[in-house]
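Hi U.,

Before I forget, here's the chain from the pilot set. I'm dumping it here mostly so it's searchable later in email.
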Amino acid sequence: MRLYDIADGYRHLMDAIQIDPETGEISTPDVLEALAVQDAAFDGKAEAVACYIKELRADAKALKEEEEVLKARRYAMDRKADSLSQYLANCMMQIGRDKVQTPRCALSFRKNFQVQVTDPDMLAKQEEFMRVKAPEPDKAAIKAALKSGRVIQGAALVMTHHLQIK
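Structure:
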């Protein structure tokens, strides 16, 4: 039986409970027994789903750790390749070679233009050359202000529920 089927059956059993109007006692004890069975079944299924969630999170954590190791290795290889490329370029310039052609590779220098900002203050006075980032709400500051009792138009503190699995 699936978890949502158990929850649905639980809800139907709760609706089926009848109370004796004179005594105030439950007049359907068999429903209570069925609820106990549903409750146990729900706990078992909930535990299985929670264990699966924990397993998925553990796998995701292991993948993230491996991703960080691979990222560090990639950066190291990129830095090494950049360093060797600069070394090769310096050697070619020292002997005055613009091109090297072999059966396996072709090396040549290419001219490119790169902007070098020499005086950022002077550029700041020329708005056409400046980029401005759009402001964004500081949610941490807003949360602290709302928790302290301030009323902030356009923001509200909303309580949500997050399932914690240990």
